[in-house]
Amino acid sequence: MIVFLDVLGQSDTVLGLPRIPITEEEKIAAAEILDNTAGHILKLRSYFDSFNEAREKPTGILDKLPPEQRKIAEQMRSVKAEWRGLSDSIVITVPLANDNEHCTPMSSILFWLFGVCTIFVVSLVSKKPLRGGVDIGWGVQLNKDEVYGSALVKAVKLESEDAQYPRVIVGDSIWKYINSVEKLEATTILGQMAKKNAETIKSLITTDSDGKHILDVIGSSVHDIGGGITPEFVKSSYEFIVETHNHLNSVRDTKLSPRYNNLRSYFESRLHIWDIQPAKG
Q: Looking at the domain that runs over 2-10+59-226, which CATH code has it been given?
């Protein structure tokens, strides 16, 4: 599985720094541009690091279990994945090969898709929206920081061609894979856990107004899982969306205004989950 995320609006801002600053005014302007571009990318990568490190911290709970039960519990909660930065993009890779009835892949996919939901909302709070795609396919790791194959091509295509505005498109291949795991006849407790995780993963996905599967970034499951997104984050994200949508309307942007209207409609359909009132007008 590969998740490809792109921070929107970076290219135009980067091009606002045409040459090395010389005067004090140019240096001040350059510092602001760098903070809004490279600075934000560093903060985003730091957030990914923090999210990844949080899952690796031992809680001590498993230490209290008998050895056999501890081994099973460790496989249930095991997560295998890597992420790397690529300019203003993030690439997450999750290997699907396994010998435990898909338990490890399902745990990994659940962990990272929930993480993407969280980071998506945090980016909106920062007024630096993300757009993304996620799918599965064949892939090989050419070196430590480079992955190659159909999975990456699919994810990039979903982000660049299908998403169109801030949302994360879920590809057909991964949707079929999750459904197939959910329907398997599990023969072990690990297989049963995989089926349960597949069910939870499906609850993180919804169908958007154009029929595409997307991550339900502020849906009921994200709210119920907790631990990442707060009502304050959702409120700030929504306010940014409304502000952007109103601005696009005021300048008569016939391309982006309808797209942000769709994003606004999605958020407004979920605001009640977080006890937030929609804006008037």
A: 3.30.70
